[in-house]
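Field guide to reading this record: the first block holds the primary sequence, the second block holds the structure written as discrete tokens, and the final block holds curator observations. Each block starts with its own label. This record concerns Lytic murein transglycosylase, catalogued under organism Aureimonas jatrophae.

BLOCK 1 — SEQUENCE
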Amino acid sequence: MRRAIQGAATAVLLLMAGSVQAAPPEIERGFRQFLEREIWPEARANGVSRAVFDRALGAVHPNLDLPDLVLPGETAPVEEVNRQAEFSSPAGYFDEKRMAGTVTRGRALLRTHADLLRRIERQTGVPGPIVVAIWGRESGYGTAKIPHNAFEVLGTKAYLARRKAMFREELIAALRIVQDGDREVADMRSSWAGALGQPQFMPTKFRELARDGDGDGRRDIWNSVPDTLLSIAVYLQDAGWVAGRPWGFEARVPATVSCTIEGPDRMRPVADLAGAGITRISGKPFPAAEARQPGTLLMPAGRFGPAFVATPNFYTIKSYNNSDLYALFIGHLADRIAGAEGAFQTPWSAPKGLTRGEVSRLQQRLEAKGMDVGGTDGLAGFKTRRSLGAAEEAAGRPATCWPTRETVRIAG
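BLOCK 2 — STRUCTURE
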């Protein structure tokens, strides 16, 4: 989940922080006690000085305008709607008008930074178009506002968020960034989720993977393009990028191939998928070099949208933000930045979807039947999609592998 967070705030990076509601006195007192009694001893044990701790957190107040908070005495509600674009409407996520503008700007920047990107690819194996595509999605190629005080965000979430332990770890890492001299307190700006700089790294990932790409002795992912691009590539290299392989291919899947075979845990040689009747939608054969390499079926909207043969590199991109749509957007944008033309050939045609809460309750019913849906988080990931398809097939229906009102009825 930690890696998923760092790109999750992308859709709201352009929003400037407005006025913050003051926390009630009891929450303010509890917050100060939490910082002093719990965070300070842990920070001190991790080498953070009292001076740095006080500069970073001495004047910070809990920000109750942040999402995903659970106030004292409350229980975490089931999220009924999807706030993150990466987990909502596929058609809206791939809006062609916005995509075209992002492609045009990405192609220009690919030319501008060609020498730098070639050097980065030699060093990491990650192609320039992939790096530029992530840069574009995460921060609008460095133009998006990064409005929040990172210590306010991380402190609030370490105290009040549902994933307190994760944000506590990130808060300690943020303090270490200042202690180590990478950044001054006043310059620690983040998204609402605590993600830092143009690549939107969480603090633990900054400390582990941020790099000095311009040779000035600093890792400045807020202002330096070389630092930003090299850091993105190192992230993907660390996550397992396989040099020389694409991320995937848009495909045509005949009705004789069930959508229930989808998933990275069901990798098989690309030649086996082709032998089953799956073809590239372009009409070209799969590259000969790919035949014996692992691939998998990817159907992010079930039978209601484009299908793909994905390579392990698709799931490496997904490690940056744990969303099929995010990884697909990056791969597609990178292809077009590199020169490919146009949208996917198969349109997104999914009927109006269920709410996140409805999907969560559907997942619970499928789990009660012994199916592995990957967790009852309300998100239609590949395990949920193929479980829905299996339920449809068990009911004698053609598998669509997508949550609809009809699949709710079938799932009982």
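BLOCK 3 — OBSERVATIONS
The two ends are 30 Å apart (CA to CA).
Residues 1-18, 83-87 have pLDDT under 50 and may be disordered.
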